[in-house]
Amino acid sequence: MFYVDDFDDITLIYDVNTDRELGEYWVNELGIQNIPRDQLETYFDYEAYGRDINIESSGGFVADGFLDVH
Question: Which domain of life does the UniProt lineage start with (predicted)?
Fold first, then answer.
């Protein structure tokens, strides 16, 4: 259960339902998409990165995606 004082502080990231998808989303939002996907797949652990984001976040996974609380 999430409690938020101000709805301007939250973002629902639709269709992000796993730690791996969360990691991929975060990496893509950081603007490193110029690195070829096959290199990222080989050298970057999206799932571990997404799991760390999920653990450190005040949000979490909901029915429609990941709820990011800023």
Answer: Bacteria
